[in-house]
Amino acid sequence: MTKLMPHAIVAAVDLGATSGRVMLGHVGRNELRLRSVARFPNGPTPVNENGRVSLHWNISELYRNVLAGLTTAVAEEPGLVSIGVDSWAVDYALLHQGRMLQVPYHYRDDRTRPAVDTLHGIAAPGELYEANGLQFLPFNSLYQLAADQDAGTLGLADQFLLVPDLLNYWLTGVSAAERTNASTTGLLDVRTGDWNEPLISRLGFNRSLFPPLVNAGSRIGSLLPSVVAELRAASPIAVTAVGSHDTASAVVAVPATDEDFAYISCGTWGLVGVELDGPVLSAASRAANFTNEGGVDGRVRYLHNVMGLWLLSEAIRSWEAEGHSIVLADLLREAAAVTDPVAVFDADDQRFLAPGDMPTRIRACCVENGLASPRTKAEMVRSILESLADAFARGVQHASLLSGKTVREVHIVGGGSQNRLLCQLTADRLGLPVLAGPVEATAIGNVLIQARAQGLVTGSLEELRALVARSFVPERYLPARSLVRR
Questions:
Q1: Tens of pLDDT along 415-443?
Q2: Residue 226 maps to which CATH number?
């Protein structure tokens, strides 16, 4: 049984593709509570590079906001004992003697297209899948590194740090790569979880670039004196490695009480999959574009990436740019009232990856595939949500079939769990119960791994999830109509 020690407080720095937050986690005897102390926007910054518009992360501004949020956290809770950082995957900084050589690129930048062909000329996609177990995504770190190699930047670097590892380095001065996020680089051995030195050498990368690997729950170090002064802390605070890939932390906080579950971590992306003890590396798995990413405690997150609510948020941005005033709650209510059939398109179509006019691209996709194009905003939103629900259902069904894992219920966590229409449509298409929530699953998972490292709670992931289920009771959606694909 999970044992709870005296009450203590940790801070979760949770960085998403569209926003960031600093959350205080209160953990104690029969207690698990979260409180937000800072929220700030995040997103791609377009930069003109020799006539080409490239997308970067404003990492300095992001770090400034993190420090401001942690300053507030320390002021409100001087007894803070630990800080943990998680973020999106694959993007990184290249450093030379501790200084960044360039501002990190955003994964939606298209610079990797030529590098994909170059790299596949060295190692074929099938060989890569056998080595790293990752689904093909053109922005995976190894393709970005190949692009930096072609540009001549990689040869100048002496250190590679993924985004959460970079922030940990700035906070502590310690270089380390947390395994769950490092597994998304394509350079870890899918069987051992260590850096794949033969593959790194074969691709022409320098092994010395890549820092020592650490597991979630490891102590990275203590805050540097300069950071302690910046935060106005009374003493150094520990920085703990969490599941630094945000999905890894989110899966920790799935409030499952039955082992036969699938999860959908739904935000900008929809990560649809199951948790396994080992990877699935079959030809059918690669053909279905399923990925084997590292989970906390050595688990495998066997999943497929779906575009997620990016489709909806980018459509709204397009309408607002045209001068329309959009109230999301009203739009969702109107979409729920649509009774005529709407187009169900392929939510994974690569044309939707880049920022831009999403409604026009969706209509073009519909026309090309003989589908009726949505005419109104309500129909467009309903079409997006029906298409996501269809993609989610197919993802769960394929994950179960390919892995052999029975699925009796599906948990939707993250921001998408608040979208009642999406949750109901997903239950309808699956013919299975859908349990929605918690919204802040990533921050909760971050907090729990810190708390366990600090001795505030002990137990397996199943025991941690039971605590989440007691503290954040999910909302249950039952299938209302028969839309199940057999």
A1: 999 999 999 999 999 999 999 999 999 99
A2: 3.30.420.40
Structure confidence at residue 4 (pLDDT): 44
Q: Which residues contact 147 (CB under 8 A, 6 or more apart)?
A: 111, 112, 114, 115
Q: Is residue 480 part of a domain?
A: no
- pLDDT over threshold 90, residue 486: no
In sequence order, what DSSP letters do the residues of 190-223 get, joined into one string? TTT-SB-HHHHHHTT--GGGSPPEE-TT-EEEE-
Query: Which residues sit opposite 99 in a β-bridge?
Result: 96
Kindly report the backbone phi and psi dihedral angles of residue 243, in degrees, each rounded to the nearest multiple of 5, phi listed first: -70, 90
Average of per-residue pLDDT across 153-177: 98
The string of pLDDT tens digits covering residues 185-244 is: 999 999 999 999 999 999 999 999 999 999 999 999 999 999 999 999 999 999 999 999
Residue 27 to residue 33: CA distance in whole angstroms: 7
What is the Cα–Cα distance from 220 to 203, expressed in whole angstroms? Answer: 29
Q: Do 229 and 269 belong to one domain?
A: no
pLDDT at position 6 is 61
Phi, psi dihedral angles at 418 (to 5 degrees): -85, -15
| 292 and 393 fall within a common domain | yes
> Amino acid letter at 298?
G
Active-site residue, from 91, 246, 390, 428 = 246
Q: Kindly tell me the sign of the dihedral angle through the C-alpha atoms of 456, 460, 464, 469.
A: negative
Asked if residue 131 and residue 273 are part of one domain, the reply reads no
Nearest to 217 by CA among 42, 406, 452: 452
CA dihedral over 441, 259, 401, 389, signed as positive or negative: negative
Backbone angles phi, psi at 259, to 5 degrees: -70, -15
At 323 the pLDDT is: 96
**Quick check: bond before 198 cis, omega within 30?**
no
Q: Quick check: helix, strand or coil at residue 119? A: helix
- CA 127 to CA 390: how far, in whole Å? 31
Q: How far apart are alpha carbons 311 and 296 in whole angstroms?
A: 29
Amino acid, single-letter form, for residue 239: V
Residue 45 CB coordination number (10 Å): 14
**Number of domains the chain is built from:** 2
Domain carrying residue 170: 3-240
Q: 314-363: per-residue pLDDT in tens?
A: 999 999 999 999 999 999 999 999 999 999 999 999 999 989 999 999 99
pLDDT, one tens digit per residue, over 289-323 is 999 999 999 999 999 999 999 999 999 999 999 99
277: annotated active-site residue: no
Token pair listed for 93? 């900084």
Q: Please give the model's pTM, rounded to 2 decimal places.
A: 0.94
Residues 6+ apart with CB under 8 A from 41: 18, 19, 20
How far is residue 411's CA from residue 419's CA, in Å, rounded to a whole number? 13
Give the pLDDT of residue 459.
92
